[in-house]
Write a structure and sequence with these properties.
The chain is α+β, with helices and mostly antiparallel strands and 262 residues long. The chain is 47% helix and 14% strand. Strand 5 and strand 6 form a beta hairpin. The longest helix is centred in the middle third of the chain and has 22 residues. The termini are far apart.
Length: 262
């Protein structure tokens, strides 16, 4: 809770939010407007969070077209709610790094991107594990329910007051993983980490929602494919049939892995 009730932490969260150009929420208040009397605003917000009076404001929904042509709905919180989301993320990111995320997981975490995933893949392939079970997860970046996410976080966070604010923040969203929330990366990893825990110990690399298991034969690759599918089912997820496959060695070029819509 100190990350949420200490004005210094809220100020740090606000500054991180202000580094990004973003549209105002349903109240029309911009970052330029919120900066007027910023410290006083944050002091009031800290008091609301301390007393349990903070509740999320309504969201402004907008349709966004991705570069792939897919249209999705994003929910834009007010600038003040974005500060609360970011402050929670600042509190939770170190916990994810130390206790939740495996070394073989990249994306949406500091210093871990597609390049690190490709380097790990290259090591596995160079060691002769060139039969790949390549699984792209269907719907990993959307949906979920509030109870699941609170329960998953409670395995690592015992501060009941913080968990209550976390729950309240999620209840203010149409779904926990709706695009636009500053908590999205935390929620994304909390969900997939449940499958990761079952799969840990295998020669694996996960980049965002793309798992690749590295094996020495087709039979091993099929078994790994089935194991990943079973692990995903534990969190009500499944492979994307169009994007998932067994790759033979001649299709195991690292540069061709972890491509968007690939």
């Amino acid at each position: 809770m100190p990350y949420l009730v200490d004005v210094r932490h809220l100020m740090a969260a606000a500054r991180l939010c202000m580094r990004r150009a973003s549209a105002p929420g349903v109240d029309g208040l911009t970052w330029a407007g919120y900066r007027q009397g910023l410290r006083d605003r944050l002091a009031v917000l800290a008091g609301q969070l301390r007393s349990g009076e903070w509740t999320p404001d309504p969201l402004r929904e907008v349709a966004i077209t991705a570069f792939t042509g897919k249209v999705f709905t994003a929910a834009i919180p007010t600038v003040q709610d974005r500060i609360v989301h970011r402050a929670m993320r600042l509190a939770l990111d170190p916990i994810l790094e130390q206790r939740v995320l495996r070394d073989w997981v990249s994306a949406y975490r500091p210093g871990r991107n597609r390049i690190t995933a490709l380097r790990q893949a290259d090591v596995h392939i160079g060691a002769g594990r060139a039969w790949l079970a390549d699984i792209d997860v269907a719907g990993a970046s959307a949906g979920g329910n509030v109870g699941q996410f609170v329960d998953w976080l409670a395995a690592y966070v015992t501060d009941g007051t913080f968990l209550a604010v976390f729950r309240r923040a999620l209840l203010g969203l149409p779904t926990p993983l709706v695009p636009g929330s500053g908590l999205w990366p935390v929620l994304f990893h909390l969900r997939l980490s449940q499958a990761d825990a079952v799969l840990d110990g295998r020669p694996l690399v996960r980049f965002a929602d793309n798992y690749i298991a590295f094996t020495t034969s087709r039979a091993e690759a099929v078994e790994a494919f089935d194991a990943i599918t079973a692990a995903l089912a534990l969190v009500d997820l499944e492979p994307n049939a169009r994007k998932s496959s067994i790759r033979p060695p001649h299709l195991a070029n690292p540069e061709d892995l972890f491509l968007i819509d690939g």
